[in-house]
Specification:
With 513 residues, the chain is α+β, with helices and mostly antiparallel strands. It has 14 helices and ten strands. It has a five-stranded antiparallel beta sheet. Strand 9 and strand 10 form a beta hairpin. The radius of gyration is 38 Å and the shape is elongated. This is GAF domain-containing sensor histidine kinase. It comes from Dactylosporangium cerinum.
């Protein structure tokens, strides 16, 4: 608009006075533009624009009125509709007063031009206000508050989950079903379904073949697995995608990405011990299954992640409440008992009772601290399942005076995060039972993880599980529920010559197909 005013003035021949007014208007416009919206300096800049335009129009050239809608509409866009009305009123007053002093108020041309631009500025301000309200309403509708949106999505998820059969939200079950379906369609000697786990690695959800394999799960290596994940395109190769398979000329491998929308959810890996086993027609048949399978797998993985996040947050909340509430109060009770013992040096009977009570309070505080440690224990993304179980066993063993014997065997491949969390909780429950109720002196912890297979075994040399054990069957029922949730098997057997062995096994022994 400044350029338009300057052009109009040049066409009619710009004079020194008009050039001065144009410079003042440029300075005022610069102040109003540079100042933060809504700031007092911005308001002063717009008022200066209106004042300069009105004075210049009445004293030199009415072409300056072309710029009048700019400060008025700018005030509306900054959220000041009342300020825009004030600016219009001020412009009208200055035009009238200045026009009267200059003797041009009786000129109908001057009055018509002033009225025309005042009306145009007012109409522009009104349209800007209407447009602003519409855009704000649309933006509010499209981007609701995060918690409102989260509530809506979780409600939908709950409704959908209730309508689906139980196994359809289990990533491992879906992966096994997909692998069986694909292997029934095309020839293969072995295969696997991989999914992302973060940290630049994949996890093995399911595999099939004569023996378990150490599949390539790193995404920063030169492999068909990494290429298919990065390009979202199927890759056929003459090399095996398992590190434990010896190189051979008679191997064909096919890696097909599972894509949901624009996101890669997982990969199907198939291998055959014959060259050229996966020509384009075979590849096309497999890719035809991946669309629907990817959507089902993504839904299951998201549901698993939401459930895991909710469980973790609840455990942390409980840990904070116990630490800040009951634990602190028990510590204060212990201090009170210590003070009472110090104040009763001659009351032997009372002193003995208080010492017994103090020992019991100390025991309860120790139990609470171990419970807090259990609640806060999680499988680290980089440490792995065996590291988390070993850390818990060492801590509990040191607290209870148990000798802990560890046997750990974990491959570089990882289980899904939700499965690792459930296995950790089962191990914690078994270790806690051995510490609290078995009266054991030794604890043996054995972990073998070779995804999708895993076995965690906890043994003690205590009194064994009897009908009248204080823990009853509640702890065993919890472990059984957790094992069933990840499609594992819980095995509880007596240990020879004494004690108990609790084992959870995930997956089955390799079998020929």
């Amino acid at each position: 608009m400044l350029a338009l005013v300057a052009a109009l003035l040049l066409i009619e021949g710009m004079h020194t006075a008009e050039l001065l007014w144009l410079a003042l208007l440029t300075a005022a416009a610069a102040i109003a533009t540079v100042a933060p919206p809504g700031h007092r300096v911005a308001h002063l800049g717009r008022a200066a624009e209106v004042l300069v335009v009105a004075l210049a129009a009445s004293t030199t050239d009415d072409n300056f009125l072309v710029f009048l809608p700019v400060p008025v509409i700018g005030a509306v866009l900054a959220g000041g509709q009342r300020a825009a009305a004030v600016l219009l009123g001020a412009a009208a007053v200055v035009l009238v007063v200045s026009g009267a002093s200059e003797g041009v108020l009786s000129d109908r041309g001057y009055l018509g031009t002033c009225l025309q631009w005042l009306v145009l500025a007012g109409a522009g301000a009104y349209q800007a206000a209407v447009l602003q309200r519409v855009l704000l309403a649309r933006r509010t509708d499209e981007t609701p508050q995060p918690y409102v949106e989260a509530t809506r999505l979780l409600t939908q998820l709950r409704s959908v989950a209730r309508q689906l059969p139980g196994a359809t939200l289990d990533p491992g079950g879906l992966a096994e079903h997909l692998l069986d379906e694909v292997r029934a369609m095309v020839p293969s000697s072995r295969g696997a379904v991989l999914s992302g786990s973060g940290g630049g690695r994949l996890v093995v959800l399911a595999q099939a073949g004569v023996e378990r394999l150490d599949w390539e799960t790193a995404l920063d290596t030169e492999s068909s697995v990494a290429d298919a994940w990065a390009t979202q395109q199927p890759v056929v190769s003459g090399r095996s995608q398992a590190r434990s398979v010896a190189p051979s000329r008679d191997i064909s491998s096919m890696v097909v990405p599972l894509i949901a929308g624009v996101r890669t959810v997982g990969l199907i890996v198939l291998e055959s011990d014959s060259a050229g086993a996966y020509p384009p027609p075979v590849l096309a048949r497999v890719t035809g299954l991946t669309g629907a399978a990817a959507l089902r797998l993504e839904a299951a993985l998201l549901f698993d992640e939401v459930r895991s996040l909710a469980t973790t947050e609840e455990r942390q909340r409980l840990a904070r409440e116990i630490h800040d509430g009951v634990a602190q109060e028990l510590v204060m009770v212990g201090y009170g008992i210590d003070n009472a013992v110090a104040a009763l040096p001659d009351a032997t009977a009372a002193e003995e009772e208080l010492r017994i009570l103090r020992a019991e309070v100390t025991r309860v505080i120790t139990e609470l601290r171990l419970s807090l440690f259990e609640l806060r224990s999680e499988v680290d993304r980089y440490g792995g399942l065996t590291a988390a179980i070993a850390d818990y066993a060492r801590t509990v063993g040191a607290s209870a005076g148990l000798r802990v014997h560890l046997s750990l065997d974990e491959t570089t491949a990882r289980l899904p995060a939700a499965v690792e969390a459930e296995l950790l909780r089962i191990a914690q429950e078994a270790i806690t039972n051995a510490r609290k109720h078995a009266g054991a002196e030794n604890l043996w912890v054995t972990c073998a993880v070779d995804p999708p297979f895993a076995q965690v075994e906890i043994s003690d040399d205590g009194s064994g599980i009897g009908e009248n054990r204080p823990d009853g069957r509640y702890g065993l029922a919890i472990m059984a529920e957790r094992a069933e949730r990840i499609r594992g098997r819980l095995e509880i057997t007596p240990r020879v010559p004494n004690g108990t062995t609790v084992a959870v096994v995930l997956g089955t022994a390799p079998r020929a197909r």
